[in-house]
Amino acid sequence: MSISEETIKTVADMAGRYEAGFVTDIETEKAPKGLSEDIVRFISAKKNEPEWMLEWRLKAYRQWQDMPEPEWAKLKIKPIDYQDSYYYAAPKDHTEGPQSLEDVDPKLLETYEKLGIPLREQEILAGVQNRAPVAVDVVFDSVSVATTFKEKLKEVGVIFCSISEAIQEHPELVKKYMGSIVPPGDNKHSCLNSAVFTDGSFVYIPPGVRCPMELSTYFRINELNTGQFERTLIIADKGSYVSYLEGCTAPMRDENQLHAAVVELIALDDAEIKYSTVQNWYPGDFETGKGGIYNFVTKRGMCEGRNSKISWTQVETGSAITWKYPSCILKGDNSQGEFYSVAITNGRQQADTGTKMIHLGKNTRSRIISKGISAGKSNNTYRGLVKILPKAEGARNFTVCDSLLIGNQCGAHTVPYIESRNKSANLEHEATTSKIGEDQLFYCMQRGLSEEEAIALIVNGFAREVMQHLPMEFAVEAQKLVGISLEGSVG
Amino acid sequence: MIKVENLHASVKADDGKAEILKGISLDIPAGQVHAIMGPNGSGKSTLSYVLAGREDYEVTQGTVKMDGEDLLDMEPEERAAAGLFLAFQYPVEIPGVNMSTFLKTSINSIRKARGEDELDALGILKLIKSKCAELGINDDMMKRAVNVGFSGGEKKRNEVLQMAILEPKFCVLDETDSGLDIDALKIVADGVNKMRSPDRSFLVITHYQRLLDYIKPDVVHVLAGGKIVKSGGPELAQELEDKGYAEFLEEAA
Questions:
Q1: CATH class (in words) of the domain with range B2-91+169-252
Q2: Given an 8 Å threshold on Cβ–Cβ distance, is B76 in contact with A465?
């Protein structure tokens, strides 16, 4: 057996070793299977929602029924049977919404500990965990089970809670902003989310406040056949700053599970939002592609005010299918949008991801750095739009799209759209495609690295420009994840 | 220490296999430096790749033993852990990975494979700094991506630095002199000479005699047509420089 054949074999035995793939055995309350107006009413009633919220959901549901699936992406998706899924699942005793940590089911705490998510405020503050404090909103299937550091954040006026709680406690903000950036009818997936969203996070940073710690939401899908539909809304008022991170995992299941999320960001004058994602949903079986999460996400940020800035950083390693285009609408003059992305596909995964930068205001600037890594029999597409509207005097964009191929059975595709309707715009686009070289691997192995270590090192080098935009606390874990997600990629 | 016996090897080519090494035998005792000289296409680089275990090179016959251990049975990284180091003729660029990260990964992979404790960041830094100072290499190099934008001389010095840091038992230098000016050549040779010790052996592969003015070999072998056609003392290198390879090519043909 040659070296690479043997490596492939060893690694294949290990492959699909998805470390977050365990199931938490916990009693769950579920809605009946399937989707109907009754289910929408059921979810709304479970959350004790006001009438206006229910109406909003029902309107979205009706619109959704007639909407076509978006089919323009380079993805092969089996028709989705929307009636074969559960739209609400909550751990019993947690159906009332978030509670204090003492009341959280120990099994849940254990789950997050296993996933390496810090929840114990006291220990974190006491330095037992030896890391910078991070406030976490914990979403388990359809509900937020806990939010940490809420009180501490309240002292500076920062609101950080579940979206269900925000609907009760801050209806004026929710009414004003929810759906203003991503209207329910934006696309079929966002419309479904608008009808059946069950939880998610809400953040409001008051004027002039620099949020004193990283905020984060950790999404976990646990139940079988259950979709997760979360909604996140972040409002950064004038002159404020917030850095927010989301992480996601799910057990290994043979059935596909739907995850259709909506994220809306609003930055007012001189405000800045930094939004980072480390997405590690179960990618499906390595060999057959069976199972895995369908990740259909609509993320959009509005740079509403002058000099505002929104920055998206994403490390996408999981999911059977990723359909996701975090975008920025640069409305305020001098506003800035950024998109830093690492998308890794291995096995049978498919990803179609990128961004849209819509320049409306004067002197708006955007920057896109996309690093796609394809391995195994996967397909990875960058799809991006840079659009300069007539009033965007002096707009600038800089785009780099690099693709790296590992092996010879995968695909990398780059589909950039550029539309400029203002002569003063300055647009730059660079793209490269390369293969991991045998000579690079051999060089590393001669220095004692195994083939796996060599690939992880080379890929992390390739993705470095993006990884360095992640908050420090997460960069190391993301680097490890890059290595793990490429296991079994040689061949 | 190093025993190569009747080594035959082929390279996988588009049109089947071509035998490059046709029965090479070498015996390099600990502490000795052996030089292999030969014209282009004689199999010099193939020999270094086969020793280090590069894919696409198939050993069809023969054995290679290091301290009695069968090298051919090992993966490239296992050979590295066992103490084999290859200084590349063309060191490879790894964009985005800085030298200190690369060295840290390398050192700890090898330590782990040898059952030693891994070094922490501080320990690694100290080790790198002291070796840089020893070899007269500016440690600014450690902040740059591996071989990216390095001059020819910097690349070769970097190879010698890695060799010094990893402290191998058996060092193979594949045309380390190619593309070097005389100053760079001296620095590289100086580094190698500092590493000479009774329990370490070297195989220096070169086209020109020039390098051997600075690294004094114990034995010189002439490789032609995939075979060692003559072995002798250091004076053989001078003879080759004067007469050229022509007569050996005829002999091998």
A1: alpha beta
A2: no
